[in-house]
Design a protein that fits this description.
Strand order of the largest sheet: 1-9-8-5
Number of strands: 13
Number of helices: 12
Strand content: 5-15%
Helix content: 25-40%
CATH architecture of the largest domain: 3-Layer(aba) Sandwich
Distance between the termini: 27 Å
CATH topology of the largest domain: Aspartate Aminotransferase, domain 2
Number of domains: 2
Amino acid sequence: MPLVDLKAQYRAIEGEIAEALERVLERQVFINGPETAAFEAEFAEACEASDCVAVSNGTTALELVLKALGVGPGDEVITVSHTFFATVGAILATGATPVLIDIEPTSWTMAPALVAEALSERTKAIVPVHIYGHPADVPAINAAAPMIPIVEDAAQAHLARYHGSAVGSCARAACFSFYPGKNLGAYGDAGAVVTSDPELAAELRALRDHGRTKGAKYEHELLGTNARSAELQAAVLRAKLPHLISWTQARQKLAARYEVTLEARTDLQLQAVKPWAEHARHLFVLLHPERDRLLAQLNERGIGAGVHYPLACHQQAALTERWRGTKSGLELTEQVAASCLSLPLYPELGADGVDRVVAELASLLLAAVA
């Protein structure tokens, strides 16, 4: 049993994928074409935003938004260390310094109460991360720093919601990844920015295309880069997007089944879902002090468990002396990194799959006690 089964998804929509790819191949337009434009309109609507800008991947989505907001050398950007390294990598790519604050103890997202102490005269942006698909409390973060623009890292949070609104609705922009294993995944790298700021969207469209604007070919008004959208990937995403609601609902039902069978256990901790949050359920993660043993033994039994993420960003060699912390430290972040375990979760897993994982996990926990 894999952690994620992309083959099962493909078998269910193989005909739709073939039709989507055929459209592109017949048209012979491969970059920033009609499939990209159509996907941008469709995904913006799904995210309840006015604009979507499709780009090459989720990392460049973050980089371009930060650049459009004027973030650069000497500036600081507040974020968390419990995230995939791309979050801080995008900040460093602008020349800015990541300021890392600790997480909330039950949802494992950015702790709004710690934002104020991280602020300085150099703070240019805040990047909350919707970890595993659970949204950070962006309205509370905004209240803690109302003059600082927020850029949401929504790479794992397609269709997630906070306080009754789609992620991104209380921020300048939300950045999505369509890496193949995501809830909405391409067949290669792809990403997007959603925003309801038309001026920001226009600048992002220029920045992704070498700074060209208004259909220019050899005139460059801005210093941009090549972060353009691939038509083949946009076509795949368009084929998948109509299924995203049902896929998300299936993930939520399977996660609920995990919770019903595991929440009574006192030897592990599950990610809590806040009452104001709608979890996209990209990953189902628990904490256990013997994570490494459980991971190895589950894998031995054919259960494709994983770890997201075994090292927090501040523990990575690449970040040595390139970040700033606060007096509150990162104790909870380090505890989660040392004990987090991801169980298989995908729409095709089914109730029987969940029950098998739970049975194997329970057996291993019982054996440890004995």
